[in-house]
Amino acid sequence: MPAQPFRYRSAEEDSGRWAGFPFRSGDIVISTRSKTGTTWVQMICALLIFQAPDLPAQLGSLSPWLDHLITPRDEVYAQLEAQRHRRFIKTHTPLDGIPVDSRATYLVTARHPLDMIVSLIYQSENIDRDAVRRLTGQLGQPASSGQPPTRAAPRRSLHERVLRWINSDSDPRADMDGLPGVMSHLRDAWGRRGEPNVLLIHYANLSADLEGQMRWLAARLGIRVPEVAWPDLVKAATFESMRSRASQLIPSPAVMKDHSAFFRRGRGGAGRELLTDDELARYHARAAELAPPDLLTWLHAPVPGPAAG
């Protein structure tokens, strides 16, 4: 009997919302860590399914984020139940925290962790935290009268924040975007890569050969695309095209201060550019403590080969 999924919880997400989810044959579940290509892969799936560069609705409506507490669970379920197209559902939960159903295909994205954390730090600056708390029903505690205001801690530089992230020993199930959490998510998916309904997608491969990756994914999903449609679909999935339509594509537009800033850079190397040789060596030593060598070879490759089991 398969093990029960672990319940991942945070202030904004709850993987327990997957319990009892009614899968359909052909469902696609996109399981990612933050800033590893989530929206990119959602967009690619949308383009393959609808086979037109202009989507019929907001990407977040076509591909709901099931775990996110901003929208009530019953509302998300009803939204998915009403969809007649092939469904593609977003989650930031690792595969050990959601039902793995033989009728569905699971896409797990990967990105060089140093690039991921830099992108995530920039995104954290672009999120309106008060809006998040309001939309998730978290009421702030009023300040006690007569108490002096708490002095804010000095702001750390981007470099300092990346170093702290490398050296953190946080619980991977409590801090899924910490380095142990990132590696745990990928390590679990890597161990399942031989299963026919689990596909690993690397951000670097999308950057290096977008059309080739889209054609590969279409074939794995059993989607036939007319040859004449490919140029427009590939163009619509480029970083430049997606950035120009940021308000239609980003998740939870109500909590982003600047929609276009969500698509900040779109290329690799940002994390490695920050670090000295010794600091980079420390990162690799830390990564080696958290993941097997074959996974790390694939994860860190400039243009990785297929993640075959």
Name of the CATH superfamily: P-loop containing nucleotide triphosphate hydrolases
Low-confidence stretches: 141-153
Summarize the helix and strand pattern as letters: EHHHEEHHHHEHHHHHHHH
Helical content class: 40-55%
Beta-strand residue fraction: 5-15%
Report the biggest beta sheet as strand number plus sense, adding barrel if it closes.
Answer: 4 strands, parallel
CATH class: Alpha Beta
Task: Walk me through this protein's architecture.
The structure is a single chain. α4 crosses α6. The longest helix has 14 residues. With 309 residues, the chain is an alpha/beta fold. It contains 15 helices and 4 strands. Strands 2-1-3-4 form a 4-stranded parallel sheet, with helices on both faces. The chain has one domain: Rossmann fold (3-Layer(aba) Sandwich). The relative contact order is 0.17.
